[in-house]
Amino acid sequence: MPALRRVPPGLALASALALALTACSGAGKGESGTLPDPKGSWAVESLTTGGRTLHAPENARVDLTEKDATGNYGCNGFTAAVAFSGTSAVTVTPGTTSVRSCPAMEFEKEFSRLFKGRLAIDRGPDRLTLKTSDGSTIAMSTKPPVPNAPLHDTWWTVESLVTGDTVAPLPAEAAGKARFRLTAGLAASGSLGCNRFSAQATGDGAQLTFGPLTTTRMACEGAVGEVERKLTELFAADPLTWDIEGRTLTLTAPDGRGLVAQGASATE
After folding, report:
1. What does pTM read for this prediction?
2. pLDDT by residue (tens digit) across 183-193?
3. CATH assignment of 40-141, given 2.40.128.270, 3.40.50.2000, 3.50.50.60, 3.30.365.10?
């Protein structure tokens, strides 16, 4: 049986410390290897500011490159210039933004207010958090972007009516009742909220023109009747400009009137 060699206590302690430091160093390297680079495509999940948490619309995103940021506040697109300080901070200089009226304008305004200036970066596996100097945060993840729904053969449910810069959700008694669909040949059909309708549309790029609506003739009163009247007038405008972000469709007339509709998902 081999003799056991006695190790002096001091040497044993030094060896244990060395092993511990080596293990910690290796763990640190492994963890840093799993942390995402701030540059890439990020889905915005929420904002925290002023003691509140605002949850993001599904279209809110930030795509970061070495010098630029593009993305979507939830409805309106934006661009910005960025300058990274290693991986610990980024300075954002806002550029352009679209100016559509959108249902989630409170979130958009807060997002645009927070996403500028010097922002500290906190990284984690599949997550990125940007923090302002006052402690407000933009929480993001690597969730893939929501693909744009097709204009054709999607059932669009009207959620809001637009008048200039004002976006008004449909009254509760009319919510979910006005919906329509366009075929590949631009034949339109659906409900105005009370009466069913059909029409033939023509298209030119991002513009649609609806022909005369053929409708049923039920009497429609109250908020449902008012929504139906406004939709009938809107579909008569020439032309309507359409735009789709994710599953959100906007139709806008030349005078600024319009609608915001949500498309059914593939599972609906």
Report:
1. 0.64
2. 999 999 999 99
3. 2.40.128.270
